Amino acid sequence: MSAATATVHHIPMSVKALSESPGLTSIPSDYAFASAADDYDLPLYTKDHDSIPVIDFSLLLSEDPGRRSKAIVQLGRACQDWGFFMVINHGIPETLMEAIIGVCRGFFDLSEDDKREFHAKHVLDPIRFGTSFNASVEKVFFWRDFLKVMVHPKFHSPSKPENFSDVLSEYCEKVRNLVKGLLGGISESLGLEWEYLSKVLDMESSLQILTANLYPPCPQPELAMGMPPHSDHGLLTMLVQNGIGGLQVFHGGKWVMVDAIPGAFLVNTGDHLEIATNGKYKSVLHRAVVNNHATRMSISVASGPSPDTLVSPIEGLLEQTGNRAAYLGMKYKDYLELQQSNVLDGKSCLDRVKITRAPHGLI
């Protein structure tokens, strides 16, 4: 199907193939947003490294009680004030971080026929290649191709390129251990034991999903969107990119362009951390913008509870504060299917499980 004949009723060609069309100087109307660059009609400003929270992971594990305590306080503040932070000194080799970007790029460089083998019909299929977010229901498509792979509790991997599986397995295991440590620090920042969140959310059977995102150069980046404003399912999303920026985080009423520290993980809090903490640590809105000169790649790993865990506000926290639950309980896999099957729209999925009360019953 050519770009000119793509309609909202059919799955479009990959954005990579579209972007490589000879003589492409404008985007098809199916990809044009009325005001992509001014979403929410709010200004964009750039932050430097000192403004975005930076968490030194090694200090969370320090044997010095004072330094460790300070790091835990900083982590809690980052979750509460930003819902976003960078992690340095995390122990994952940069060579491995570069390798996962490399093999994912190798996947996107496969022929369209090879990639078509991994097209899937259901949002919870273990390996899924596609474009936009959910092109079967969207009226306007996003300038993005993706590969989603469920890697835990059961490991899956595409068979191509040849070394994909080995790199994927090693990388995701190390990220899983890093997430476990961060959740330990978050637990203690909430006044709970280190293992509390991991145990109550059954993180030994955590549903871990790697998503590789490809954002090719766009001839009209001011009209297109890589990904719209949204929050993530799960607890924490760990992201690395190929040195090309495009991630923006919503903070303080403005969009903040993220300038990543080399070798750092970009981390955002997800909807299920907000639910579990009864709204104390809120999930963060973020989006991806595109450019007209370079291909951006990002590799995110979403870590959530086990698929069958019923996620609701943690009783221990409710007892601490005396607050009533502000969110309904829902199995993680049901929430994931609900979000992934619909049009991506801010925090609309999270709003479905919020409990609304009359003014006299406010929490």
Describe this structure in words.
- The protein is α+β, with helices and mostly antiparallel strands.
- It has one domain: B-lactam Antibiotic, Isopenicillin N Synthase, Chain (Jelly Rolls, Sandwich), CATH 2.60.120.
- It has 11 helices and 15 strands.
- The strands form 3 sheets. Strands 2-3-11-8-13-6-5-4 form an 8-stranded mixed sheet. Strands 1-10-9-12-7 form a 5-stranded mixed sheet, with no helix packed on it. The protein has a two-stranded antiparallel sheet with strand order 14-15.
- A hairpin with a 2-residue loop joins strand 9 and strand 10.
- Helix 3 packs across helix 6 and helix 4 crosses helix 6.
- It is globular.
- The relative contact order is 0.16.
> How much helical structure, as a percent, in the residues?
25-40%
Counting structural domains, the number is 1
Total helical elements: 11
The CATH topology comes to: Jelly Rolls
Radius of gyration from the CA trace? 20 Å
Shape: globular
Question: Total number of β-strand segments?
Answer: 15
Q: Which stretches of 5+ consecutive residues score pLDDT under 50?
A: 1-9, 36-41, 358-363
Percent strand equals: 15-25%
Q: What is the correct CATH architecture?
A: Sandwich
End-to-end distance, in Å? Answer: 53 Å
Q: Kindly provide the name of the CATH class.
A: Mainly Beta
Order of helices and strands: HEEHHEHHEEHHEEEEEEHEEEHEHH
Largest sheet: 8 strands, mixed
Classify the secondary structure makeup into a structural class. alpha+beta
- Spatial strand arrangement across the major sheet: 2-3-11-8-13-6-5-4
Please state the average pLDDT score.
Answer: 88
**CATH-level-4 superfamily name:** B-lactam Antibiotic, Isopenicillin N Synthase, Chain
